[in-house]
Design goal:
Blueprint: H1 35-56, H2 72-77, E1 85-88, H3 93-100, H4 103-111, E2 128-129, E3 132-134, H5 141-155, E4 161-166, H6 173-184, E5 189-195, E6 198-199, E7 202-203, H7 212-218, E8 222-226, H8 231-248, E9 252-257, H9 273-281, H10 284-292, H11 294-315
Helix pairs in contact: 1-3, 1-11, 4-11, 5-6
Length: 338
């Protein structure tokens, strides 16, 4: 993994010198994720595959957007953002699962069954739980993150607001209004960019001039690029970045240069199959299978079987009942934001 250090601050409102993270020298071979991280990675991978199979079998309605290939991003960040405000996007199942480890609640939400996180009214894209909020509206999360982060700063809560976006979201004007305010007011906002090189079906090079790094630099905002998928090293690299955002109120943009193995939604992948197979060759799942052998394959099979059993149990539940705001699910009850 390589990390590009933050760009030096250029705005008068943020005069402090940048503190670039130390260059990360990887051991050979890279450290293996711990058991908990492995289970989280596999849970997200097989949950997303399960959704695609259920759609293909006619067991689910509507649509969904999977994060296949990008699972390591939220898994790496989850312990660093514990207790913070996290704003997700349309491709957010992995973000939710890495934080809450609640596949049954999420599937019940998507299926509209009892036990759903939001009584089945949010579905795949619009979920609220504790300090977590997802939305399918591109660019919406960043202005919200600035407002929430400003509240955290003024109350001295020590929390930050992290917003997950894709590279395609950088075509939205609200992104730049939010970055301007975050830099000007020194707001504790972490922008996590899952740059998978394609916006729905349009390659990034066909719809983005310049780079995200240069766009962050225009506002004097720190920028870090992560190009690997090894969870322990990513977490080590980003720990000081997150700490600066939290303690110094320095907004930062962290770009994960990653890849999307699945379709945009559930059957609309216009890429050449050879290109997708090339991406699979560098996937974290294939690497760990090769490196860890039988123990990893056994864990992989167990996680997949547990999720299949969970899906059958959730599918057999009665429909969720919306009881109105007066009787909200306790999981959504939080003094939010603070």
């Amino acid at each position: 993994m390589t990390a590009r250090p933050p760009e030096p601050s250029r705005t008068p409102a943020a005069p402090a010198a940048a503190h670039p993270p130390a260059a990360l020298s990887l051991a050979e071979p890279p450290a293996v994720p711990g058991r908990e991280d492995l289970e989280s990675l596999l849970t997200i991978r097989h949950f997303e595959n399960l959704l695609l199979r259920m759609f293909a079998e006619g067991r689910l309605n509507g649509t969904t957007h999977t994060c296949l290939g990008q699972e390591y991003v939220p898994v790496s960040l989850a312990p660093l953002l514990a207790g913070d405000h996290v704003l997700s996007n349309h491709r957010g199942h992995g973000h939710y699962l890495a934080l809450f480890r609640d596949p049954a609640g999420l599937l019940a939400e998507i299926m509209g069954r009892t036990g759903a996180v939001c009584s089945g009214v949010g579905g795949s894209q619009h979920i609220r739980r504790d300090g977590y909020l997802s939305t399918g509206v591109q660019g919406q999360s960043l202005p919200l993150a600035v407002g929430i982060g400003l509240r955290c700063k003024r109350t001295g809560s020590g929390r930050l607001a992290a917003a997950f976006v894709g590279d395609g979201t950088w075509g939205e004007g609200a992104v730049y209004e939010a970055l301007n305010m975050a830099a000007l007011w020194r707001v504790p906002v972490l922008v996590v960019v899952e740059h998978n090189g394609i916006a729905q079906s349009t390659p990034t090079h066909a719809q983005m001039a310049g780079s995200i790094a240069d766009r962050a630099a225009a506002f004097g905002i720190d920028f870090v690029e992560v190009t690997g998928h090894h969870v322990p090293e990513i977490r080590e690299c980003l720990t000081p970045v997150v700490r600066r955002v939290r303690e110094e109120h320095r907004p930062a943009v962290v770009q994960f240069t990653t890849h999307r193995l699945g379709p945009h939604s559930k059957g609309d992948d216009t890429r050449d199959p050879a290109e997708v197979e090339r991406l699979r060759a560098g996937d974290w799942h294939r690497e760990l299978t090769d490196r860890l052998g039988a123990p990893f394959r056994e864990l992989d099979a167990r996680v997949r079987a547990d999720l299949e059993e969970m899906a059958r149990e959730v599918e057999a539940r009665p429909p969720a009942t919306w009881t109105g705001s007066g009787s909200a699910d306790p999981r959504t009850e939080d003094r939010w934001p603070n």
